[in-house]
Design goal:
heterodimer, A: mainly beta, seven-stranded mixed sheet, B: mainly beta, six-stranded mixed sheet, four-stranded antiparallel sheet, 12 strands
């Protein structure tokens, strides 16, 4: 069974440029998460989807970050414009939705903003 | 404030030696508790999780963890470390029924031959 797929794996951009990350969750997983992992830190939740609905986006910096999950499957996280401090790893995870269910993580996208 | 604390940033052990990684949390009720491992270039992989019942939980790769309510701790252990265990280990809690994970800052494990 395929795991969570993320692309690209690496992205280097200039500050003020836009960038987008794509995530394909495990088939059948209705819950999808985006996490931000800064260097030397644990992941921090940005947004959680139940199917196509963003049920928790309280930690998403909405002035520059946006996300969508059309048709309740794939998801895209966008930053516009990127700032130097956005350099980090962006992780996508999916689960069946119960809090006791395992969250399966993708390999992440490492973003470097110059 | 609610938090997850992993007091050891970096631990080095010899191959074959025992291992204990510490995790403390500060939440009012007993949250759901998890340990994940992250190898370079890899996604986070679940080692084990605790919800209720037996406070000693067995996981994959020979790991186990013990929940101690009185100490608000969920320490990870392995009796004999292998070189392939070198990675970063994250303790996480789901403090409520929403399922959102709160992670500690991680402990990097190095293994000496």
């Amino acid at each position: 069974e395929a795991g969570v797929v993320q692309s690209p794996r690496y992205k280097i951009i200039e500050k003020k440029q836009p960038v987008a990350f794509w995530c394909n969750p495990i088939s059948g997983h209705n819950t999808l998460y985006w996490y931000l992992q800064n260097l030397g830190q644990g992941p921090e939740l940005l947004i959680r989807y139940e199917n196509e609905e963003a049920v928790d986006d309280s930690q998403l910096p909405k002035d520059r970050f946006s996300a969508e999950r059309l048709k309740g499957v794939d998801s895209t996280l966008k930053i516009q414009p990127a700032e130097l401090g956005d350099s980090a790893v962006y992780l996508c995870a999916s689960s069946l939705g119960d809090p006791t269910d395992t969250q399966y993580f993708g390999p992440g996208t490492r973003l470097t903003v110059l | 404030a609610q938090s997850v604390t992993q007091p050891d940033i970096h631990i080095t052990v010899s191959e074959g030696a025992s291992l204990e990684l510490r995790c403390n949390y500060s939440y009012g009720a007993t949250p759901y508790l998890f340990w994940y491992v992250q190898s370079p270039g890899q996604g986070l992989q679940l080692l084990l999780k605790y919800f209720s019942g037996d406070t000693l939980v067995q996981g994959i790769k020979g790991f186990e963890a013990e929940f101690k309510r009185s100490q608000s701790s969920f320490n990870l252990r392995k009796p004999s470390v292998h070189w392939s265990d070198a990675a970063e280990y994250f303790c996480a809690v789901a403090p409520d029924s929403q399922g959102n994970l709160i992670f500690g800052k991680g402990t990097k494990l190095s293994v000496k031959p």
